[in-house]
Design a protein that fits this description.
- There is one protein chain.
- By secondary structure, the protein is mainly beta.
- The protein folds into two domains: 106 residues, Immunoglobulin-like; 81 residues, Immunoglobulin-like.
- The protein is built from no helices and 16 strands.
- A five-stranded antiparallel beta sheet has the order 4-3-2-7-8, with no helix packed on it.
Length: 233
């Protein structure tokens, strides 16, 4: 997963290949509808990291290797709305590539936040949620339960909320509600400081968040050397 924040208006794209041998060069490119492909940056063992002159200061190779690469675009604007290509030059099979297109739009008034809660016990703990005002439910998964070698069970549950961009509140994870061993764990959350904050109050839960905003995109590129592409955005 990629966690993206509105501060700085940056986007990061990741590319990787499952080819272990024969990768000679990795290239990041940009494609406009009516224009030829532009090379943004390349990496090879011979020449190292190379960002083309027109894009220096705009494009940065934040990870560079022959099987895993990433770039960051700084100060994203309307002019950056185009398609981006991750290309692996593999010997002797040629080039394997995948493109994903970036659509730039205004920052929304709401963001989506995913909270996760996990607890271990015997019998399997139940999990419910109590949400502070200002947030609305978008989706929640079914509780999943896994058995452990010590004959206990681990229950996990996620909930997706839509909250205002300046929301400060909390989400309570309620364990075994109305039963013996009932517990409550609070997950504080604030967007007012620009980035979300989470606090672990005892280790009974794992907390993860994902912000969905416009003007950012996750570019996933997976190339298979033996003529098969396998990718998922």
């Amino acid at each position: 997963y990629l966690f993206l924040y509105p501060s700085g208006l940056e986007i990061t794209g990741y590319g990787n290949t499952i080819a272990e041998y024969g990768v000679l060069q990795v290239t990041w490119q940009r494609l406009f509808k009516d224009d030829p492909i532009e090379n943004l940056a390349t990496y090879s063992k011979r020449f190292g990291e190379q960002v083309n002159l027109p894009f220096r200061g705009k494009v940065a190779l934040t990870q560079a290797s022959l099987n895993s690469t990433s770039i960051t675009l700084r100060n994203v604007s309307w002019q950056d709305e185009s398609c981006y290509i991750c290309s692996f030059n593999v010997y002797p099979d040629g080039s394997s590539r995948k493109q994903t297109c970036l659509s730039v739009g205004p920052e929304g008034e709401h963001v989506e936040v995913v909270f996760g809660c996990s607890a271990t016990g015997k019998p399997a703990p139940t999990i419910e949620w109590d949400i502070s005002p200002g947030a609305s439910h978008l989706d929640q998964t079914e509780t999943t339960t896994a058995s452990n070698s010590d004959h206990t069970f681990t229950s996990s549950h996620n909930v997706t909320l839509q909250v205002p961009a300046d929301w400060s509140g909390h989400v309570d994870c309620l364990l075994n509600r109305g039963q013996t061993g009932e517990k409550q764990k609070r997950i504080p959350f604030s967007l007012s400081a620009g980035r979300p904050k989470a606090k672990d109050e005892g280790g009974l839960y794992r907390f993860g968040i994902a912000l969905v905003i416009s003007a950012v995109i996750f570019i996933a590129c997976m190339a298979v050397a033996a003529a098969m592409l396998r990718s998922r955005r």
